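Aggregate trends can hide what the representation actually does to any particular protein. In the encoding step, the backbone of a single protein was reduced to a row of integers, each denoting a local shape. The record that follows shows the chain in one-letter code together with its fold in token form.

***
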Amino acid sequence: MEYQLTVRYGKKTQRYLTFTVEATDVPVALRAAADQIPAEISPEADLVELRVAPDFEKNPLGQDPPDGQAQE
């Protein structure tokens, strides 16, 4: 499964780094993500968000899911 991570960092101005990792589950994704956070931003990182990466082939941007059902 592909997971998307967003890392917030910066002292005076907050910036964001977003990337994806391929993993079997959340713990594996978190371990893989930790290895990809650049050393120069890690001292300033204060928030990390992990979610299942959007699949734009299944649900193109701007289109509602079929039958009005929410995405999982």
Remarks:
- The chain has a mean pLDDT of 86.
- The radius of gyration is 15 Å.
- Residues 59 and 66 are 9 Å apart (CA to CA).
